[in-house]
Write a structure and sequence with these properties.
Blueprint lengths: L1 H18 L3 H13 L5 H7 L12 H15 L3 H4 L10 H14 L1 H4 L15 H15 L3 E6 L13 E4 L2 E4 L6 E2 L2 E3 L10 E8 L8 H9 L6 H16 L4 E3 L2 H8 L9 E7 L7 H15 L8 E8 L8 E8 L3 E8 L5 E4 L2
Parallel strand pairs: 1-6, 1-8, 2-4, 5-12, 6-7, 8-9
Antiparallel strand pairs: 2-3, 9-10, 10-11, 11-12
Helix pairs in contact: 1-2, 4-9, 11-12
């Protein structure tokens, strides 16, 4: 039963990757699901996985894909590196011969990648967040104080330093080396000025954008055949390294309770935001975040509003695609602004 669940997790991830424009990574996942054996440490660990191997659980396929991509980028296994994009991979038999050998011979390198969940910092999601901030800027005409939960390396915490085209609306820093221009469906968000007065974030394991090993780890978790996405990440890392966001190491709920004061702050729109992070918080932390937001929101006024901007997978969207939801106090009303491709590459605007 365990092996069946693991194999299905890889086959499901193969469909997800291929549909999202990463056919090489999808092919690797499919071959893992079909051909992996217990020969070698990696095969035994993967097929004997004690947890939940699916992408909604431990994301086991993405752990292994990250390790293999890192190995290919490192040059430690020249034959493996030669198969990775932009090269054209051989037949399934030829590809699997190299992959299966690497799983055995490079087990010491690959094994640590199975020890923890993937940690990404997908810059493309900033496009959705920026669209939400435009809605708030158009309504309140106030500068922002940003609080990002699950901020990782803080690349989305500095979203105002990127350039955007969102439908017919332009925003952000003109001429930025990071330009986000997702496929846009529906009306454009309002045109307004997004002025960030202060920013901060929290993560259980914050990443240092100036550390070369950290940068390489983030790059490895980008699917190998998505070259444009990888280049965008590298450009964002370079930009962030010039003036990194301050990301605290803490539980999200504890940090928010300490740093988001209950007292209203006139002249500032405070925004708590997160992207594909809330689902990983414990039920207790989720409840505490909601409770604190409501407590703070009860003190909000039109000249000191509070907003909760959430980019998270929802069960009632197609294929669990993330929804961009916005809750605003005073009032506490919630609007669904958009349904999005998980990496922010396509946005269906609903507002």
């Amino acid at each position: 039963m365990t092996q069946a669940l693991v194999r299905q997790a890889f086959l499901d991830q193969a469909v997800i990757c291929t549909t999202a424009g990463a056919p090489f990574t999808g092919r690797l996942c499919r071959l893992m699901g079909e051909r992996l054996t217990e020969h070698g440490e990696i095969g035994r660990r993967v097929l004997g996985w004690a947890g939940a191997p699916s992408h909604q659980g431990d994301a086991l396929p993405l752990r292994l894909m990250g390790g293999l991509h890192a190995l290919a980028r490192s040059g430690r296994d020249a034959a493996l590196s030669a198969l990775y994009p932009p090269a054209t991979a051989p037949t399934d038999d030829g590809l699997w011969a190299t992959i299966s050998r690497a799983l055995v011979e490079q087990a010491d390198y690959l094994s640590p990648w199975l020890d923890g969940p993937p940690q990404t910092n997908e810059v493309g999601r900033s496009a959705a967040l920026m669209a939400g901030l435009l809605v708030l800027a158009d309504r309140f005409r106030l500068p922002f104080g940003l609080y990002e939960l699950g901020a990782s390396a803080g690349l989305n915490t500095i979203l105002d330093r990127y350039s955007y085209r969102l439908g017919e609306t332009t925003a952000g820093a003109a001429g930025s080396p990071v330009r986000l221009e997702p496929v846009w469906n529906g009306a454009s968000p309002p045109s307004a000025t997004v002025d960030v007065a202060r920013r901060s974030g929290v993560d259980r394991n914050p990443l240092d954008v100036r550390d070369s090993a950290t940068r390489e780890r983030l790059s490895a978790y980008v699917w190998a055949d998505q070259r444009a996405r990888l280049q965008r990440l590298e450009a964002a890392l370079d930009l962030a390294a010039t003036d990194p966001a301050v990301i605290a190491k803490d539980d999200a709920a504890s940090w928010l309770e300490t740093n988001l004061s209950v007292a209203a702050e006139p002249g500032l729109c405070r925004v708590v935001m997160h992207t594909i992070a809330y689902q990983y918080f414990s039920p207790d932390s989720q409840a505490r975040v909601r409770r604190h937001l409501q407590t703070v929101g009860d003190q909000a006024t039109p000249d000191a509003p509070l907003a909760w901007l959430s980019f998270e997978a929802v069960s009632d969207s197609v294929d669990r695609r993330p929804a961009l939801d916005l809750t605003v106090w005073p009032g506490g009303d919630t609007r669904r602004l958009a349904i999005c491709q998980p990496h922010g590459a396509e946005i269906d605007w609903k507002a």
